[in-house]
Amino acid sequence: MTGDRREATSGSFGGNGVVSSGDTNKSTQALASTLPSQRLRLNPSKDHKPESYEDLQLDYSPSVFSSLERYLPPNMLCVSRDDKVKFMREILCKYLPHGERIRAQRHREYRQKIISNYQPLHRELYAMQPATFFVPSFIKAISDNTEESFRRLVSEPSPGVFTFEMLQPHFCELLLEEVENFEKWVKETKFRIMRPNTMNNYGAVLDDFGLETMLDKLMEGFIRPMSKVFFPEVGGSTLDSHHGFVVEYGIDRDVELGFHVDDSEVTLNVCLGKQFSGGELFFRGTRCDKHVNTGSQSEVC
C-alpha cells in the first residue's frame, strides 16, 4: 500500500472563490474564473468526508479523487461534485505526463475487460465485511483507535517491523480459492494478464479482477489508522493509493525473491500459504534515498 502524494499548486489565489446564489450560469462562470488560481492545501482536511466517485468514468482511479478532495481549498469543499472533478482533473493532468496518462488509460481498459468477463467465485469478498474478515483483537484495536490499543495488538521483532494477527482463517481460504478461480479462468480463456511486478512470474493483481474497492476500504479504514501511529515520518496518516496482489512460490513456481526495496511508504505482508516449508521473510533495514536502487552486498563480519 502506498501513500504517494505530491503537492500541486496552480499559482496564487486572487479572490475569495465563493459562489453566490442567484443565476446558475453566472455562478458557474464565477467559479470557473477562480479555479485556475486556486491552491491545494498543504495538509488534508481531516474532518472533511470526501464524496464517492465510484460511479463516474474518470481518467484516474476514483480513490485518487476522494483522497485529493481532502486537499481542496476550504471554499471548494462545498461546491458540486462535478466542479470538484473538473478542478482536480485539471491539476492531475497538469502534473501527470501525457505518456503516463495514456498508460493509465490503457490499464483501465485492460482491467475493465477482465471485470466484464470474469465471474467471481466468492462475491462476499468484494465488499468490506469487518466482522467476517478480521479477528476480534484487530477489530477492537481499530475500534478503540488509540496508540495504546495498536501497541497492545502488535509486536516489534525489529525496528519498524510490526507483526500482528489480522485476518480470519476462513477469509484467507476464500481469498485463495478466488485467486485460484481467477487463474483457472485466465488459463481457460488464454487471457494474457499483467503479473504483480517485474520480479515475479506467478501471481495476480487483486485490483485487476474487481477487489480494488474493498482494498481501498481496507487501506482507508484499517491500515491508515495504524500507519498514522507507526509510520508518521513517511506520510502514514495520508496513505491514498495501494497495489494489492498475491504472488506464488513453489517448486514449479517462483522459488525466491531477492532483496529489493518496495515502491511504497508502507507494506502489508500477509502469509496465505497452506502447508509449506521455508518462505522466510527477511528485512535488512531502511535504505537512504541515494542507495534505494543499488545492488545488495554481503554483510561483512
TrEMBL record:
Residues 159-301 form the Prolyl 4-hydroxylase alpha subunit domain. Keywords: Dioxygenase, Oxidoreductase, Vitamin C. The keyword Cell membrane does not apply. Residues 1-53 are annotated as: Disordered. It comes from the Eukaryota. Residues 23-37 have a biased composition (Polar residues). Its cofactor is L-ascorbate. Transmembrane segments: none annotated. InterPro entries: Pro_4_hyd_alph. One of its GO terms (molecular function) is L-ascorbic acid binding. This is Prolyl 4-hydroxylase alpha subunit domain-containing protein. It comes from Tripterygium wilfordii (Thunder God vine).
